[in-house]
Amino acid sequence: MKRAAWAFTALAVAACSQPQAEKKAAEPPPSTSTAVAPTVQNTAPPGEYKLDNTHASVTFRVDHLGLSRYTARFTDIAGKLNFDPANPAAMSVEATVDPKSLETDFPLDKPDFDAELTGPQWLDAAKFPAITFKSTKVEPTGANTAKVTGDFTLHGVTRPLTLDATFNGGYAAGGMDPSGARIGFSAQGKIKRSDFGVSYGVPAPGTHFGVGDEVEILIETEFTQPGPAAAKPAG
Asked: Residue 175: is it exposed, middle or buried by C-beta count within 10 angstroms (0-12/13-18/19+)?
């Protein structure tokens, strides 16, 4: 209805004054957007935080035959983060994932698809029992976003990895967390698994027949810091 009214007005102006219509046409219509940039709330203090693995997930997606983005996850995750909201570039994070904790949604008991993916042809978790990330640089890109670069080790190979991270907010001890402070982040990145020596099933050039080389990593995390009362041993 608004677009129709605007068009009718434009035609009326054109009938009265063609030069004026041309001038108006050269000007963009006024914006009616009411979008407001999201505000991130944070009352959490700086310091070292530990990953709350009950509120964290590391999932990955990979192309399967060019038909779908197959998704799986790791469930055994540990990490710590040095949090400094006043100086994000000084923050750092370390994380460790147990590759044996890989889980898929494969519905059959046999074959054991999870065991196959953690076996010698793929992750070889018995030989390489940890996937790790240790940040080396944090580059703020916005009020609550940053590129986090670090040393990523997978399958015994260490290469740089950059994650696009978003700080979702935090709060000091109180409310649902009376024993400590809590902060939350989301992050994502991509690797080529062949760069880490995991090249089984990569499609031949020009085809999708196989399992894609590019792996998308999706991370959701919460970190906690015990409050003064919780940090002191009872006695």
From this structure: exposed
